[in-house]
Amino acid sequence: MNNEATIFSRHYCVFFEKSITSLQMENLLREFMLSIGRTLSRYGIILGHIKLLAKLSELAVDHYLFLSLTTLDNVNVIPSRCWHNVNGVSIGCIELDVNVLVFGYTINEVEVQVDGALKKLGRGR
Asked: Which tens digits make up the pLDDT trace of 38-84?
């Protein structure tokens, strides 16, 4: 076990095989966060945090969701003010800024968990 803080920060573009709705995307992103968190937590608590900024790059206006996770019982989701305007819009891709700060894990261990969660989410680049 690593006793130093590990900081992982990456930008991804994720493409979905089939277009999805904003509600489906929000649910997928919650599961994405929990998938990472389950493996990096101890007794349901993450010694650090996992943060995610998800932006809809297909739209001209800045639509985003900010997700945060420190305990497995609560994925905190904060939408942009205009997020409600994307209801019913088909989403084919999303940009993700993933930030993980944890104690007890190496950068390689964190990267493996994020990569695995990305594969479940869609096709990343």
From this structure: 999 988 899 999 999 999 876 656 788 999 999 999 999 999 887 77
CB-based contact 54:24 (threshold 8 Å): no
Structure tokens at 104: 């007890």
Specify the residue for token string 């968190």: 37
Q: Where are the alpha helices (DSSP H) in the chain?
A: 22-40, 107-121
> Residue 97's beta-bridge partner residues?
11, 53
For the chain, percent helix, then strand, then coil, each to nearest 5?
Answer: 30, 50, 20
Local confidence band at 120 (pLDDT 50, 70, 90 cut-offs)? confident
Alpha-carbon gap, residue 84 to 14, rounded angstroms: 21
* 41 close to 72: Cβ distance less than 8 angstroms: yes
**Contact between 14 and 29 (Cβ < 8 Å):** no
0.70 cut: is pTM over it? yes
The candidate with the shortest Cα–Cα distance to 95, out of 51, 124, 54, 52, is: 54
